[in-house]
Amino acid sequence: MTRTLAAVVAGGIAAVTLAGVRRRHARTRAEGAWRLAHPVAADGIVPGAGAIALDGGARAVLLLHGFGDTPQTLRRQALALHATGWTVRAPLLPGHGRTLEAFRASDAAAWTGAARAAYESLCRVHEQVAVVGLSMGGAIAVQLSAGQRPPSALVLLAPYLEVGGRGRLWTSLWPLWSLWRAWIPSDPASSIRDPLARGESLGYGHASPRLLRELRRVVDWARAASGRVRAPTLAVFSQHDYRITPDAALRGFARLGSREKELRWVQNSGHVITVDLDADEVTRWVVDWLARHTPESPPA
User: Fold this and answer.
1) Three-class DSSP category at 212
2) How far apart are CA 161 and CA 241, in angstroms?
3) Rounded to 5 degrees, what are φ and ψ at 92?
4) Contact indicator for 281, 203 with CB cutoff of 8 Å
5) So what's the pLDDT on residue 6?
6) Which secondary-structure segment (H or E) carries 255?
7) How far apart are CA 131 and CA 195, in angstroms?
8) Model pTM?
9) What digits encode the pLDDT tens for the residues 42-52?
10) pLDDT, tens digit, for every residue of 68-82?
11) DSSP secondary structure, 190-254, as one string
12) Which of 23, 28, 36, 131 has the greatest CB tally within 10 Å of its CB?
């Protein structure tokens, strides 16, 4: 090995080592800042971020939140459905609503497994079970709907059903990306345009490169399952969603196998349409769609 090559190798090792040190420091700062701003309760969950369980009538609905978020984003819809007689369950997915360390330790299999367990639990008790999914929760809802026991009705709210070319490239390179970045922040103003709703958010607002790869796994599973969906499906997207372009929304909707499906758009919200400026309209659509396709007394 020449002196020049040796110097290059030594310099590369030093650069990687320094990047690793900086990454660990940045990770520690981000995780500490989250714990300081959002201290957990005795159960290890941030107050207000826990699961929602509302007992009602014979019809049941499962609400699934998005990546890095909590059931708080679906509380308005949960209360509205319960007010019309539904039994409501909105589980807190593993790693969510706790600490960034807990989030870092979770993965796609844990998220989808917890959602499936919640769905199967409802199906054991209730003859009619509907599913509502937001963002990543929409992708998981598609997987549940493609199973042996489809829901009576399905609502997908800003569902994440496709990872584009750039996203696939970055998530494929996550081990290299992780050498420099521990946590990648999102843009809260683009996710939720309403400043009041944004201030109430309990979402992490950060994701690690590996977690983004896990999110891609969930989306890829949903894409593969889309053609097997048979439940009557309402899909709602925002025209101003910085994460899901209108073209991606149309492609995802077209892949759904439901014979009865409807696509609607909201005009004023970011990605988290359940709490943003169109939340009231979104809630009405959810309640009306599920009521129309899940009658209180199922046909004999």
Assistant:
1) helix
2) 14
3) -90, 115
4) no
5) 53
6) helix 246-255
7) 29
8) 0.90
9) 999 999 999 99
10) 999 999 999 999 999
11) HH---HHHHHH-----EE-HHHHHHHHHHHHHHHHHGGG--S-EEEEEETT-SSS-HHHHHHHHH
12) 131
Closest CA to 204 of 69, 42, 5, 17: 69
State both tokens at 171. 């998530």
Closest residue by Cα to residue 202 from 221, 188, 183, 220: 188
According to DSSP, the residues that pair with 134 across neighbouring strands are 157
Rg of the chain in Å (alpha carbons):
21
CA–CA separation, 188 vs 287, rounded Å? 27
Q: Higher pLDDT residue, 179 or 57?
A: 57
Beta bridge partners of 129: 60
**Domain range summary for the chain, segments of one domain joined by +:** 45-293
What is the pLDDT at residue 21? 54
21 or 168, greater pLDDT: 168
User: What class does CATH assign to 45-293?
Assistant: alpha beta
Kind and range of the H or E element at 102?
helix 100-104
Of 4-13, 57-66, 107-116, minimum mean pLDDT range: 4-13
- Find the mean pLDDT for residues 107-112: 98
Structure token digits, residue 74: 């679906």
